[in-house]
Task: structure prediction
Amino acid sequence: MALLLEVIELSRSVSGDSDVFKVLVLCTNECSWEPVIFEMLVKAYVKKGLVREGFSVFRKMVRFGLVPSVVTVNCLLNGLSKFNYVDRCWYLFEEMGKIGVRANCFTFNILTHVLCTGEDVDKVNKFLDEMEEEGFIPDVVTYNTLIDSYCKKRRLKDAIYLFNIMYRRNVLPDLVTYTALMNGYCKDMNMREAHKLFHRMIQEGICPDVTSYNTLICGYCKEGMMQEARTLLRDMIGDGVLPDNFCCWILVKGYEKQDRLLSALNLLVELQRFNVPIPKDIYNYLIVALCKDNRALAAKNLLERMSIDGHETTEKIFNEIIICLCKRDYAEEALTLKADMVYKGLKPSSVTYRAIICCLCRSTRNVEGESLMREMIESCFLPDVEILRALVNGFCAERNVCKAELLLRFFAVEFHIFDSECYNVLLKVLCEDGDIAKLMGFQDSMLKLGISPNATTFRHVIDALSRKMGSHSNNECKACVV
Result:
């Protein structure tokens, strides 16, 4: 077999894709050989996932007068089934009868599976009759295939009927049977019957595995019955069955669906207490969910727990948490996390820089905000109008007009950002100071930069002139502005 697999690989690497079957036939003239070699060639193709080539070899064998064994045919049939070559499966079954290869239970079980993957499940009954006429009684694999198919197609009554027939025909259900039927009840939103079947399975002496537990837990989570799901989880761990990634996922998503993120966090703590490894993806998923829910500190704490657990997170997750911290004005925490991010070789995004700068300015830490803006530029990110507004508003709030004016000029000259809103904020502060000469000089310099006044600008100037020239009329004030 190893040699045939190597020959197949070599034949596929040469131009024209050499015919291995033909080469083997030619070799029969020069050396002793066994027909089983051609059967092994079929199996080798199937093993490589080249089922069409295996099917082609089978047809050549038949034309050559070689009759393969039922084991070889079943191997090819199973391969065709996995790749959903339904027509070729039935062709192969018909050929078996023509060349005298007698089908066995494995053949019928494979074909039962082929039937079940189609839409017309009713054909199964006819096929089972044919199977019994051939002298084969359906075994537990046959029934499991059918019950699973009926449950997936929401034909629960048919599945229950077959389940009961199994006992009448002395075919004992196994773990797969019970799990498939439990899944059918869960899909039918009948958790009570699903759990009763679970207990019946245990009474029959069948120990549940992680799949059977997951089936019930998933059903409870979909129904919003999180308490029942959590109890079943504890039973599962108590029975020595370790929850897998799927189990953790369905419980976390079940809590999130009910907006119970804190319960999901408590679940992680409980799982860790029982030494159940938490997947990295679940940590990331919950951190993003907490950020969307504006639970910035909870997201940051979960990141720390994730790091203790030995998982490294992504640049995206760091940025998400920092932005969320800034929304809640946790400037110090955001800066600490940014420093940790940079230390690990990760790069803050432009959105992250913007969020921290705006947060610092809201916290009257304008000098730090400006410094971070310059770091942002050094990191090849261009600041935007939102950053300009944050900085200008921040410096104007502390009456640092000179710095605000310098920033307004800097953004206009370096980045061609002309913002009337910032212009008016700064103008308003100048108007409140009452220095008309400085006010008019500022207005002239802004015009030279390309920042045009608007209605708000005129209202501020008129208001300032009115206060300064209290004895003048409004018309005279307007004339001064013009």
